[in-house]
Amino acid sequence: MCASFSGSDPLLADLRAIVGDAYALPGEDAPELLTDQLNRYTGRARAVVRPRTTEEVAQVVRLLAGQRVPIVAQGGNTSLTGGATPTAEGSAVVLALTRLDRIRDIDLENDAMTLEAGVLLANAQEAAREAQRLFPLRLPSEGSCTIGGNLATNAGGTQVLRYGNTRALTLGIEVVTADGEIWDGLRALRKDNAGYDLRDLFIGSEGTLGIITAATLRLFPQPAAQRSAFLKFAAIEDVLALFDRAKKGFGSALTAFEIISGATYELVARRLPEQRLPFPAEFGEERWYALVELSDEESDDHARDALERVIGEAIEAGLVQDAVLPESLAQTRAIWELRETGLGSAQKRDGWNAKHDISLPISRIPHFIRSTGDALRQAFPGIRVFTHGHAGDGNLHYQVARPEDTGDDYWLTHETAVRTLVHRAVLAHNGSICAEHGVGALKAHTLPDYKPPLEIALMRRIKDVLDPQGILNPGKVLLA
Question: Which residues form a coiled coil (predicted)?
Answer without folding.
Answer: none
